[in-house]
Amino acid sequence: MLGFATFAALLPELRDLWRLSNAEAGLIASAFFIGYVATVSYWTALTDRTDGRRVYFAGSLLATAGGVGFGLAADGLASGMFFHVLLGAGVAGTYMPGLRLLSDRTSGPSQSRTIAFYTSFFGIGIASSLALAGLLAPEYGWRSAFVASAAGPLCAGLAVFLLIGKTGTEANAKISFTFAALFPVSSWRRVIANRAAAGYTLGYVAHCIELFGSRGWMVAFLAYSAGLQAAGASFPWNFAAIAAAVNLLAVPASIFGNEIALRIGRRQWIQIAMLGSGACGIVLAVSGGLHWSIVILLLIVYSMLVMAESATLTAGLVAAAPAELRGAALGLYSLAGFTGGMLGPSLFGVALDLAGGKADAAAWVWAYAAIGAGCVAAPAVVRLFRR
């Protein structure tokens, strides 16, 4: 995940350097998810037929190429989008296939907890990505941050391929690039026919719109808030470092949220967490002009609420999907969710532009409301599903 948030950490700098609008900056952030969405169903369905370690290693090589390419050759909207697409396609070959590797090696209550830890470490990866960019870019330039981040997926791919053993069910089938392999529609129909699996997938879409929309613009929001601080009350650290710390502090929320869900029920906890995160995003936007300590505290609370149902949604999907369709179910789940993730940063940027721009306080409220609308509506959607 080391290159995942490099662009988010440098968004204000590259937006100004390349003279981009907020919508165009959002498009580059969303390009990651275009690559992810375009390939994730293939990578994940492939784990139903071949050694998942090989899939993971191939994805890691593609992610490495995307990071190096962005650092060496990106110089504007088109090239930035191209290399971010490659990076997204590479991460698609590691994230859900990695989850499949774990879920095939666990069962029962331990499976739910293992999945919770795995999805939480997504946040640690993002925090590390932000921290690396914040450390390298001021000293060595923004290109160095992208090139250095490419070492992460390469090391991960080697570690998974060399250190994790095969299970008895992982065959050595030939890899196929047919349409049916890329988009296993018949399997998806069977997954969607499962009401619980369909519900968790829809919930993941709303979750990802808010999650990736807010993360993609976190550093930019901190820069906006810094401009409103009173003289002598500036933020004590650089914005990428603050964003990294916030993401790191939000990691336990997914684990603890899953434990709460095991006690009060997944459906109830998902509704509580989603409604809380959607409302808190609006409160955060309204509070941008308050003292930096309050802004950071609200940002931590908001990030924790956004993460609180993440593991619960994924664990619910894994439990609901039949074992023989688990790869296809995870592929559809990830495809749908990261399609939401693709929309999140762009939706935020477009709302920000339409409502008045980066200097307008009301525009930030509309932007956070736009990405959180699906989560605020979650309780009503659950009641609709129940009917």
Order of helices and strands, N to C? HHHHHHHHHHHHHHHHHHH
CATH hierarchy, class: Mainly Alpha
CATH fold-level label: Growth Hormone, Chain: A
How many independent structural domains? Answer: 1
Q: Helix count?
A: 19
- The helix content, as a percent range, equals over 70%
Global mean pLDDT: 86
Structure description:
The chain has 387 residues and is mainly α. It has a single domain (6-162, 184-386), classed as Growth Hormone, Chain: A (Up-down Bundle), CATH 1.20.1250. It has helices at 6-17, 22-46, 52-73, 77-92, 95-103, 109-140, 142-149, 151-163, 179-182, 185-193, 195-216, 218-226, 239-264, 266-286, 292-307, 310-320, 326-354, 361-376, 378-386. α12 (218-226) crosses α13 (239-264). The radius of gyration is 20 Å and the shape is globular. The mean pLDDT is 86.
List the helices and strands and how they pair.
Elements: H1 6-17, H2 22-46, H3 52-73, H4 77-92, H5 95-103, H6 109-140, H7 142-149, H8 151-163, H9 179-182, H10 185-193, H11 195-216, H12 218-226, H13 239-264, H14 266-286, H15 292-307, H16 310-320, H17 326-354, H18 361-376, H19 378-386
